[in-house]
Amino acid sequence: MYSRLIAIIRKEFIQLIRDKRLLALILILPLVELFLLGYAATNEVRDIPVAVFDQSHSAEGRALLDAYRASDYFMLAYSVNSDAELRQLIENGQAGVGLTIPPDYATRLQEGQAQVAFILDGSDPTMATTALSAAQLIAQNHATQLLAEKLMGSGVNLKLQLPVDVRTTVWYNPDMISSYFMIPGVIGMILFAITAILTATSVVRERERGTIEQLIVTPIRSWELMVGKILPYVILSLFDTFTVIAVGHFWFGVPVRGSLLLIALLSALFLLSGLGIGLFASTIANTQQEAMLTVFMTLLPAIFLSGFFFPLRNMPMFLQWISYFIPLRYFLQIIRVLMLKGVGIESIRIDVIALAVFGVMIMGAAARRFRKRLD
To answer: Which pTM was predicted?
Structure first.
């Protein structure tokens, strides 16, 4: 029995080694995806170009500009002489923010009634939301500082104390780096995509070449053929997983606080779902193109409804209910908690149970259909 199984596995590895393009795709694509998402997929907004229309030309106006210049969020890139110039820069996309300081800013500031105009380009909501929050916070801090200086200059021995002192602490990702969130998600996408796509296409490829009929007439049992076909991709997927973890940790600095053994075991558990989907696609597809399209029909909803890019809690309720039927949802929660929080399995047991149930059901149904197709 074992000799037949080993022969199938050896045959599959030989085919993989001979297919240089496919092997390169398996080994290199995860790293390409990792670097693209690690660097490009980020919600952090920095150095927003600002067009400044300073009509005051006063020390007070320059102090306000220095407050914004000291922030990492804004870059005072343009100085204009009219509202029309400011509008033109924003319309052309050269500036994301316009700051207008009125001529009487210094006088109004002494009276405690100064106002400035902060204009945002709302065509990019992510940038606009960040810029709005940062602008308000910087203005409040600057106003508080001016008030403190005014009280001290008046000779009144008064300690300025805000009524509420909010002190924030961020756990697990103190600098709120986006790559810490994205890279664990890449692991889930790699495991799902490689196992599902390659399992489906490898079986269909045998059917296209007519070699699967030769395998069927041999003493090889259907379950041996199934295991022999999918096991090489399991090994390569786990290899890619630890490659991504290593590069993410040593290159991007993503912490790995959880047990590597637990990560490996739960990754293997998640593979059941990807393998099941790949096997199922192989039973309904007659060509490799059909198999790819069938898998992509499940891959795209998994990307958008698993929490990979967008928070699930912000989605409409009916989409949240659909997400409960996507195994990737549970694995992303598991891998992010294990890598960033370093907790044990007791904190993620519900997700582990759900992942196991889906994996066993999908793999079992696909295996049954696969055996019937062979028969």
So the answer is: 0.76
